[in-house]
Amino acid sequence: MARKNVAEQFVDILVRAGVQRLYGVVGDSLNPVVDAVRRTPGIDWVQVRHEEAAAFAAGAEAQITGKLAACAGSCGPGNLHLINGLYDAHRSMAPVLALASHIPSSEIGLGYFQETHPDQLFRECSHYSELISSPQQMPRLLQTAIQHAVGRGGVSVVSLPGDIADRPAPEKSIEHALVTTRPTARPGDAEIDKLVRMIDEADRVTLFCGSGTAGAHAEVMQFAERIKSPVGHALRGKEWIQYDNPYDVGMSGLLGYGAAYEATHECDLLLLLGTDFPYNAFLPDDVKIAQVDVRPEHLGRRSKLDLAVWGDVRETLRCITPKVRAKADRRFLDKMLKKHADALEGVVRAYTRKVEKHVPVHPEYVAAVLDELADDDAVFTVDTGMCNVWAARYISPNGRRRIIGSFSHGSMANALPQAIGAQFVDRDRQVVSMSGDGGFTMLMGDFLTLVQYDLPVKIVLFNNSSLSMVELEMLVAGLPSFGTAYRNPDFAAVARAAGAYGVRVEKPKQLAGALKDAFKHKGPALVDVVTDPNALSIPPKISAEMVTGFALSASKIVLDGGVGRMVQMARSNLRNVPRP
């Protein structure tokens, strides 16, 4: 029996680590690995049209499963295309192993055809990026890379020259047990006692939650009830904390709504739970702040902390909830719940007023109808830009739905390739890509990947023929919009030409039927909705400078908000507020 080569050994280790797919584009230096995948049971090669899509797909798979996912690119330009998707995966803390195949090892450093230095190029978007220079080195280096990706949550990159991948694997190589899950971590007793004292001494406490509260919904609710705290969230915390939450006061930040901003500024103590919320302008500078995060490098990098607590949110709350003194005074909580309900009531009509007659279609209305018709366990992938706004305000989490986007990296064109990775995880689960026309066309070639693999992804295309978020930024700055308009085709016709289901919606009354038909279709489908380019969004708090910018550029533009079904939750939460 022939000895394994390095490529086969590489693939075997990936399978042992739980990797089921390797996303990528084939190429000469990558051929030994792709051939090893072909001959190895338990792992599949997923052929995409652009390596950037491979990295986005792997990142989405990792976020859905919580397990290691993998992608690959051939030498030079091939693996270089991975970089944007890897940045997104790394900043989303998704465990991804990237294989960057390399030029022949004897030619490295000599200006060879397609030469780059991937072990250096990927260092900023990874926890670990190293070059394999001999067959003997490979097993330990790959295992180390896997443990970095899984253990620290993020990307590892292994650079492997094609000639080394084709060499025989060493007969006696060290292959040790692999780390495939992350542990939980609780703070030290001293930090727990300090946090308990701060909470007991504060009359008004607000919780602001991020993606680090995943798996801690019950603990957050129990803690909020004990200390009578309003609960706000960042965008990445929405899917984990908004549902079944009688203390919900909405979201803060550029896409915010409700009373989250007021709750974080009018409290005595603000607890930041598992959030690396980047917009420090929306955080207070005159209240005490304590932050809990499992990644110590996140502590204090957005605001000045009075207490930094290194630990997992769920374990930390399990430690402190029994120790804090139960608060009986809920006046602050009730005040914030009323403010939240009032704020939502003020904009709820934005997507219902004359929608049956409004052409082009309100994008708010599209998102609201989509929210009602989508499955209770649907996965939504969301393009950066105005689609973020509509998802934040209209897609209702329930503990089973997932909402994935480029929320930390902020890349365009993420929704379609992320939908590819999400759908490969489970072909029977509904996956909906909320795509903007700008993002969709940037990586539109990978729509053909859906067709090639018959992936039943449903693309809802918000087609306003513009880069509307960029246009909004220009308006805020007092600039006329420039370079933001697109001349688009009939995307439904494009979808049909590619062999998928496609339907175009130009009137609101066509929308519900079009979505239902697309959802019933067994394969990939695209619903091209022509939406109003003048539908814009503004943050919950606006500075004088921002108002001036709008006045200079677009004094007559109506900036309607809208919050979909969230107002129903706000109303129901008010039932718990004592009446005078």
How many β-strand stretches?
19
Please, what is the CATH homologous superfamily of the largest domain?
Answer: Thiamin diphosphate (ThDP)-binding fold, Pyr/PP domains
Number of helices: 24
Strand content: 15-25%
CATH class of the largest domain: Alpha Beta
In spatial order, strands of the major sheet run 10-9-8-7-11-12-13
Q: Brief overview, please?
A:
The chain is α/β, with parallel strands linked by helices and 580 residues long. The chain is 37% helix and 16% strand.
Explained architecture:
Residues 5-120 form the Thiamine pyrophosphate enzyme N-terminal TPP-binding domain. This is Pyruvate dehydrogenase. Keywords: Pyruvate, Thiamine pyrophosphate. Strands 10-9-8-7-11-12-13 form a 7-stranded mixed sheet. With 580 residues, the protein is of the alpha/beta class. Mean pLDDT is 89; it is low at 544-561. α3 (51-65) packs across α17 (415-425) and α14 packs antiparallel against α24. The chain is 37% helix and 16% strand.
